[in-house]
């Protein structure tokens, strides 16, 4: 199975780039299942229902959200009505929606997707991400009830993401980090067979400060004072993500490749 994961979609520029490119990426790379993190798809703060629908219509099988999952108020209803939208599994217990679900690809193969928030350096403490994920993985064993499993760990600290990678290794196909918007260069297959990358980066304009127009963040860093709201940068977009090929019998990763398409980060020819 070929699984494509695209990192945090950043604002209108990132959203348009993904919706335009994803059908071609699915076809050219013969992708079986697509997960997109949409936590910043609407103005850089959450994702509304219309923008979620656009990403799904473009070819995403599942959208993960993140710490901004309910910044757009209509998402409170959207996550209840559309099972393709996943909020973090360890969010408030009374929160609507779900944090994990088993999907099927076009050939009927079952794919578990689970989405979890980290605790280190986040704005508030969430429920323990490790016990939350453990419960889901025990219920849906890889190579048993599911043919593939993807975990999106949305957090600040690289150490926490790495710990989650090792914690899930041998029980999932992919563990991928999101949230920091800066892609790491450590894509690998862990000893137990899980494809891993600390952070996929964003689908956005990298001539920015983590996807925001650089003027206001720079002003606040330099002067300590804010003048206007942050707004997403609108320049040329780089699509960042991870492409993983798995073994259908075991669910383990056989190949992993970092994706850089377009914009400033696309690799140049040697």
Automatic annotation (TrEMBL):
Catalytic residue list: 68 (proton donor)
Recorded superkingdom: Bacteria
Pfam families, alphabetized: YmdB
InterPro entries: Metallo-depent_PP-like, YmdB-like
GO MF, one annotated term: 2',3'-cyclic-nucleotide 3'-phosphodiesterase activity
PANTHER family reported in the protein's UniProt record: 2',3'-CYCLIC-NUCLEOTIDE 2'-PHOSPHODIESTERASE (PTHR36303)
Name of the protein described by the UniProt record: YmdB family metallophosphoesterase
Organism (species): Sediminimonas qiaohouensis
